[in-house]
Amino acid sequence: MTRAVILAALLAGQVLAFPVLAEGTLEGRLVTFTVETWDDPAAPIFIARGRTVMVGSGVEFGLDREGGTAGLDVVPVTVEIGPTRIELSYPAGIGRFYVAKFNGYVLRFETDCALFDAVAVDPKGTTMPVKPGDVRAEGGALFINVSGLGYGPSSTLAIDLAVADCPLS
Question: For the whole model, what pTM was predicted?
Answer without folding.
Answer: 0.81
